[in-house]
Write a structure and sequence with these properties.
Length: about 100
């Protein structure tokens, strides 16, 4: 496990510092950074962290989750029951077509 400083992995902090030193101080600049540029700028050891950050940026700006190691819960899809058992759907085909419902006795 990577060492943490105030709850943040040191490799992530180091990668952010290197990015800032080299002028990559916005999400758009970081997103456009390529592997060759990283190698030319001496960021070879930070490449994996930078790739992970780029993925976080591309995935709906998840930089904070990347930095702090958090993860949002996945939304649960609710099943929509189209023709659920519903007393309001009683009646003949012709009455349903016009929105009329036979009263239930």
């Amino acid at each position: 496990m990577a060492e943490k400083k105030n709850g943040i992995d040191k490799p992530k902090i180091k990668a952010l510092e290197k990015l800032k030193e080299n002028g990559f101080d916005t999400a758009n600049k970081i997103k456009m950074l390529e592997a060759r540029q990283m190698l030319k700028l001496g960021m070879a050891t930070e490449m994996q962290e930078i790739f992970d950050l780029q993925d976080a940026i591309k995935a709906n700006h998840g930089e904070i989750a990347w930095l702090l190691g958090g993860e949002d819960p996945k939304p649960v899809k609710k099943e929509a029951s189209r023709d659920a058992d519903d007393d309001s759907r009683q009646g003949s085909e012709s009455t349903r077509a016009f929105g009329f419902v036979n009263p239930v006795s």
